[in-house]
Amino acid sequence: MDDTGIDRDSRQIHTSQPLNKRLWHPSPLIHQIVLVTTVSEEGVENVAPKSLISMLSFDPPILVIGCNRHHNTAKNIIATREFVVNIPHRRHVQEVWRSSELPHPRRVSDMGLTAIPGVNVKAPRIKECPAHLECTLDSTKTWGDEMALFGEIVSFTMLEELGHGWEEWYRQLGPFLFLEDKLYGVVKAQRVES
Ligand SMILES: Cc1cc2nc3c(=O)[nH]c(=O)nc-3n(C[C@H](O)[C@H](O)[C@H](O)COP(=O)(O)O)c2cc1C
After folding, report:
1. 36, 116, 150, 158: most buried by Cβ count inside 10 Å?
2. How far is the CA of 163 from the centre of ligand 1 (A)?
3. What pLDDT does 184 receive?
4. Are strands 125-126 and 146-158 parallel, antiparallel or unpaired?
5. What is the average pLDDT across 2-13?
6. Ligand 1, atom 6: nearest CA belongs to which residue?
């Protein structure tokens, strides 16, 4: 057995797996967990955890969120064409997970965190999150009940003091990942040997 956990001498057999991601144990695809803040057309604030998120383009800076189209997050984004992707630290993992079950209207303060104004959008940022990506809606694509919301990043704010050196930066940022229901992973920066 080498340090990747694979026994090089054993016969490795790959079996077919279901296409439904909810049945993947373990999941071969993992996703960063973020808190998306939005406001409704009437100005009512909302927060929800999302993990189907990815950066798609450097220039222009485009990201995508996968969201059920009946969720308040999707409805608010379509109504106001704005949202904020807040990057929570893993110290808040319990609050983040529990927030998905809080009743609506679901304000940031309902999860024990603090809303602060956005720089360029009406949706709030979350003070306790080390970084925030403010976005305007570019376009959407829908499949049944699910949809992709493509956003252009129009403002990026991050804690000024994240310590010294790359190990400390990522420790202070504290990103964490969705593995499968009730299971998360943490990120530890490691440098590739040259
Ligand atoms: C860690 C975590 C990640 C989640 N990721 C997503 C996601 O990527 N897309 C989605 O539609 N729902 C996701 N959910 C479920 C929603 O957060 C949940 O249904 C929430 O109540 C929706 O709130 P909203 O209606 O205010 O948007 C996730 C839940 C948790 C706990």
Report:
1. 36
2. 31
3. 98
4. unpaired
5. 69
6. 50
Q: How far is ligand 1, taken at its centre, from the CA of residue 100, in Å?
A: 6
Instruction: Give residue for tokens 């709030």.
Output: 124
The answer on pLDDT for 76 being more than 70 is yes
Q: What is the DSSP letter of 129?
A: S
Q: Identify the structural domains of the chain with CATH numbers, from first to last.
A: 31-186 (2.30.110.10)
Amino acid at residue number 102 = L
Q: Which ligand 1 atom sits closest to the C-alpha of 146? A: 11
pLDDT of residue 4: 66
Query: 53 alpha carbon to ligand 1 midpoint, in Å?
Result: 11
Over the stretch 177-188, which tens digit does the pLDDT of each residue have?
A: 999 999 999 999
User: Which residues have any ligand 1 atom within 6 Å of their CB?
Assistant: 33, 46, 48-52, 66-68, 71-73, 97, 100, 106, 178
Angstrom distance (rounded) from CA 44 to CA 194: 51
* Contact between residue 135 and residue 63 where contact means Cβ atoms under 8 Å apart: yes
Spatial contact of 189 and 172, defined as CB atoms under 8 Å apart: no
Residue whose CA is closest, atom 7 of ligand 1?
A: 50
